[in-house]
Amino acid sequence: MSKINSIFISIFLLLFTPSFSFAQEVQETQEVIVQSLPIESFKGVLRGEKVDKLIWRGGIEISSDYQEFGGLSGITFTGDNNQIVMVSDIGNFFSGQLIYDEFDQLLALGGVEMSAITNSKGNVLPRKFAKDAEAIDTIYRFGKPASIRVGFENLTRVADFELRNGKPFGAAKEIIIPHILSKERTNASLEAVCIAPKNSPIAGSTLLITENMLVEENIAGFMLGNLDKGAFNIKKTKSMNPTDCAFLENGDLLILERGISFLSFTMQLRLIKADKVQPKALLEGEVILSARGSKNIDNMEGLAVYKNANGQERIIIISDDNFNDWERTLFLEFSFE
Q1: Considering the entire predicted model, what is its pTM?
Q2: Count of CB atoms within 10 A of residue 65's CB?
Q3: CATH number of the domain within which 206 lies
């Protein structure tokens, strides 16, 4: 075969042979450098001491020069070694790892990466109105983190995202929610999402809690599940509104609430027993932690529960700085006795 014929055949094959791409799809991420400062005391007590009905375990204050870091509204654990994913008000995922010392005290947030939250076509959310992610929880399959469920306000909706190596990946898969909730187009709509664990009487059900949708002066909530499904209400606390929820391993429910008092923030954490969390119920529970003032807390919006290396259940509460210089991003950690 002549050199000219060989070239001709090569060109023909290039033009007319079907092409196959074996390249693995990659989710674009941006490394984010953050600084962590320890928080030693809370409401005048030191690490390991009792505060209200919990034990203060310490915390950190996070900052970064990266322009889009901030506005953290929700947090969930997605893998071993304290791997977390957080959502922000401007449509970003932040993944990373909480780092502890040999005494199991929180030191830093490391390995932080940012990726944009996408729509059902895998494209970056097109406008600010659609980007306001407020809540996140992890979906487990066969005991392993499989995906995450994210709640949005303004353009109110709920969507699932695949997890790969504990990090969000791919296009959104929108979940059907009650029309009375999805039609809402305000920042008082969906604020908290949490999924009941296997020990709960409503195991596998998803709770959707609004920030300030009222039913007979109480906070509106909705339960999604195969067997447990329907509306419920949360007893409204004066001057406070829910910002997140999380289940303990035994099925008890924690609800984080936040308010404003004398130009500073207030917060409280309520515990509701597992058997009380049912459709049509009015949930109230007991306050197990409260705080006020700019020294101890900030705009506390995110809540998660996990087990540490010693098998102790821990509670993490984070704040949303709203991209304001006068607010902070805090990680506060507590446990039961």
Answers
A1: 0.91
A2: 9
A3: 2.115.10
